[in-house]
Design brief:
By secondary structure, the chain is an alpha/beta fold. The protein folds into four domains: 22-238, Rhopdopsin 7-helix transmembrane proteins (Up-down Bundle); 251-364, 2-Layer Sandwich (Beta-Lactamase), CATH 3.30.450.20; 372-532, Reverse transcriptase/Diguanylate cyclase domain (Alpha-Beta Plaits), CATH 3.30.70.270; 554-801, TIM Barrel (Alpha-Beta Barrel), CATH 3.20.20.
């Protein structure tokens, strides 16, 4: 057969005179039909993901081979059989190469096997080229009882050996992945089912035997059909969507509560998320590829975007009124922008988040227009009282002779009455207090309820300390008088803090704050009334600061430890160190109760240093007491501590002093701290020393994905709000899956926080999250209690047993 014969042979293939129907071809036609249906199903079901595209190509090649195989069985001319056999063998070798790459993706081994994939594609292409115009692959054809079969040449025999080796390698990879996957996860079941599909495909090797001289009927279509059907079910049950950073970014972008647009430096829209049409009223095709300012106005001009992105205020937003593209109705929009920069610092794109704040503004107006009175007592509430104070301050600016005072009244025993006699009686007691206050105050004065058991009185025309004190004592005595309610004689005491217009105030809130601060002194005095002036204000601030500063040397600052567990291997991997203040009067205080004060008075760095020192010392004790040298500890450090010039060297020295491996210390950071330019260099120094860096509460801040991969991080801690939303069916599961994928592709660990129930732990583990912490496992405990917990492996195993179908126990009840 020469090159000149090829066009003639192609034409003869479509001449029906050369065909006679052979029943043996029915099986191949059926296989072609099934392969085509499966290929279409997978392509549509999986939204065109790369694994599904590869599998669809495999099905298409298999379809063409099956149709060609059926034609070979029906052909009567030996030359045509030889010509067609060489062509359809090309489909086989290409399908084998496609199948190999598909399997590596299914087993998540594509990156490790990339060189092997390239090698096998090269071999497949070489064999395919050998099929044309040579006898090295298929040298001829031979007639068997069931029809024509090709006879392999030297390269054809080598191709059979190549296919056998490739199938063996695929099988070994599948077995290895099956053994390494946890038995109780969906991943293990998915690989098991895929192994069954591969096992079903193996008998298809029989199709090569006639070409090697063995008179065996080649039932290759049946195993191939079984493989395609099992894989189709596998796709329907577990999916073939490849989890990539792009998929994670897409999922996160579509869940942003607003329209997300990406513009190039010229202002041309390159991307919009799904929410864009709902917010702006323009479909995607009306925006992508067009100048944003021509559709949405000059607010999206690149110069304005660049200025907004460079604003020192990280929360800066641009507000404007926009006519909705669909309804034409005006909408209030607010936009924040950040610039995407290349390695040279050039702005190469702008990411704009546009929120519809129409309803928010309308609600704000409604709240302002609402009656500013307390529901229970009918008195002005805090907002209205502050307005009265602002008006009084403005009047004093215009008329220095206008004097006034504020009495801040804090009631005693109201909480006890509520707990003992019920809230109904407590409300009646409050109403009685209001009645007595109204009897005592003058017509020109104003009484307001500014808190649950707190009242305030604006006393006009009084500023002298003695007069104000006498007025306050009269109010206090009226409140102290016994009251008869619900067959009980009740005594409600009160403390009164005083502040006057003798000091110049900028706003009513400052005046009310000072009167409230005077309460701290009033409670310690026999009379229960205290006047606060300039010195008193300074003294109160100093006193609060002194209490917190004295807490460290007094041993009141404590470190508690919450275990972090590996849910795959079912053991504790370390602890998070959490600070507590054992206040002598108020009891155990959580971080939210005092860390903001510590930041204000400049003590946060000192507290962070204390917690870090104690955590390192206790970690070594944990390791020695449990015999587990791999235990780690994570410590939250704030901006103040990390801003110190020698912080990296100090932390490294601390680790060395306690004989710790640097990898055993992990530092947790808020998202905003990671993005601070002055701190990033110090983070890189810490990472270079082997110390781990975690982003705490990931997903709740505003970290840019474009910068995330540049930060020297080792782990993302998934915020508890997503964990809780997952179990409530509020979409948290997809967000968690996206974050896990993002962490995995960035080479980071992922730890779920706030795991409170067995259901949450079970779903996290099935989603692929290995590490977690939360009340389900244990609350934060003092050192001794945490050590006892770590020494009780049975207790932890009982927790993991609850993840099975056994009845669930009640989660640990403790403070956060």
């Amino acid at each position: 057969m020469t090159d000149a014969d090829v066009p003639r042979l192609y034409a003869e293939l479509f001449n029906s005179a050369h065909y006679r129907f052979d029943p043996h071809s029915l099986l191949d036609y059926a296989a072609a039909l099934i392969a085509g249906a499966v290929g279409v199903f997978i392509s549509r079901w999986e939204r065109g993901s790369r694994p599904s595209q590869l599998y669809a190509i495999f099905c298409f090649l298999f379809l063409l081979w099956a149709v060609g195989r059926a034609a070979v069985l029906n052909l009567q001319d030996a030359d045509l059989v030889l010509f067609l056999s060489r062509r359809i063998y090309v489909l086989i070798v290409l399908a084998i190469a496609v199948l190999y790459q598909f399997v590596t993706i299914m087993l998540r081994l594509e990156k490790q096997r990339m060189n092997a994939i390239r090698l096998h594609w090269g071999i497949a292409i070489a064999i395919a080229l050998g099929c044309f115009g040579t006898t090295s692959v298929i040298g001829g054809v031979e007639r068997y009882a069931w029809g024509w079969e090709p006879v392999f040449g030297p390269l054809g025999v080598a191709s059979v050996l190549w296919v056998g080796g490739l199938m063996t390698a695929v099988t070994l990879d599948t077995i290895r992945a099956w053994r390494e996957s946890p038995r109780d996860r969906g991943e293990h079941r998915r690989i098991t089912l895929f192994g069954v599909a591969l096992a079903a495909l193996f008998p298809a090797f029989i199709a090569f035997l006639p070409g090697l001289g063995f008179a065996v009927y080649p039932l290759a279509a049946i195993p191939a059909i079984a493989f395609t059907l099992i894989t189709a079910w596998l796709t329907y049950r577990y999916g073939l969507v490849e989890v990539t950073p792009a998929l994670a970014a897409q999922e996160i972008a579509d869940r942003v509560r607003g329209a997300l647009l990406m513009l190039d430096p010229e202002g041309v829209v390159q991307y919009v998320n799904r929410r864009c049409e709902a917010v702006l009223g323009f479909p995607e095709y009306r925006l992508v590829g067009r100048m944003a300012r021509t559709v949405l106005g000059d607010n999206l001009d690149p110069s304005r975007l660049s200025a907004l992105a460079r604003s020192d205020d990280r929360d800066a937003e641009k507000e404007w009124i926009h006519l909705n593209g669909e309804t034409g109705k005006p909408r209030d929009l607010a936009m924040s922008v950040f610039a995407v920069k290349d390695a040279h610092g050039r702005e190469v794109a702008y990411v704009c988040l546009v929120r519809d704040v129409t309803e928010q503004k309308r609600a704000d107006l409604e709240r302002r227009a609402a009656v500013l009175r307390d529901v229970l007592t009918g008195l002005p509430n805090r907002a209205m009282f502050l307005s009265l104070l602002d008006a009084a301050i403005e009047r004093r600016r215009a008329d220095p002779g206008h004097e006034f005072a504020v009495c801040f009244i804090s009631l005693h025993r109201v909480r006890v009455i509520n707990e003992d006699l019920g809230f109904a009686v407590g409300d009646r007691a409050l109403l009685e207090v209001v009645r007595r206050l109204r009897e005592q105050v003058r017509p020109q004065d104003a009484v307001a309820r500014v808190g649950g058991d707190e009242f305030a009185v604006l006393v006009r025309g009084v500023a002298a300390p003695d007069a104000a004190r006498a007025y306050a004592e009269k109010l206090r005595e009226a409140i102290r008088a016994p009251m008869k309610l619900a067959d009980h004689e009740l005594h409600v005491g009160a403390s009164v803090g005083l502040a006057t217009s003798a000091r110049t105030y900028a706003a009513g809130a400052d005046l009310l704050r000072d009167a409230c601060m005077a309460i701290h002194h009033a409670r310690e005095l026999p009379g229960g009334v205290e006047f606060i002036g300039l010195r008193g204000i300074a003294g109160q601030r100093t006193r609060l600061e002194a209490e917190l500063r004295a807490a460290l040397p007094a041993g009141q600052i404590e470190v508690h430890y919450q275990p972090i567990v590996d849910m795959t291997r079912e053991h504790v991997t370390g602890f998070e160190a959490l600070v507590r203040w054992q206040h002598p009067v108020r009891g155990l205080l959580m971080p939210d109760d005092f860390l903001e004060l510590a930041e204000d008075v400049g003590l946060s760095a000192e507290i962070d240093g204390f917690v870090l020192e104690r955590a390192c010392a206790d970690l070594k004790r944990f390791q020695r007491a449990t015999g587990n040298e791999t235990l780690s500890v994570s410590v939250n450090l704030g901006e103040s501590y990390l801003s110190q010039p020698d912080v990296a060297a100090r932390i490294a020295a601390l680790v060395e002093r306690h004989y710790l491996d640097p990898v055993d210390l992990r530092i947790e950071l808020l998202e905003r701290i990671v993005e601070l330019e002055p701190i990033q260099d110090k983070l890189r120094q810490l990472r270079a020393r082997g110390i781990g860096l975690y982003i705490d509460d990931f997903g709740t801040g505003h970290s840019a994905l474009s910068r995330l991969h540049q930060a020297p991080l080792t782990a993302l801690k998934i915020d508890r709000t997503f964990v809780s939303a997952m179990s409530k069916g509020e979409g948290g599961e997809k967000v968690i899956t996206a974050i896990l994928s993002l962490a995995r592709n960035l080479g980071h660990e992922s730890i779920a926080e706030g795991v409170a129930t067995a259901e949450e732990a079970r779903r996290l583990r099935e989603a692929g999250c290995r590490q977690a912490q939360g009340f389900f496992f244990s609350a934060a405990l003092p050192y001794e209690a945490a050590l006892a917990w770590a020494r009780d492996p049975e207790g932890l195993l009982r927790r993991f047993a609850m993840l099975d179908s056994r009845p669930l126990l009640r989660p640990v009840a403790a403070s956060p």
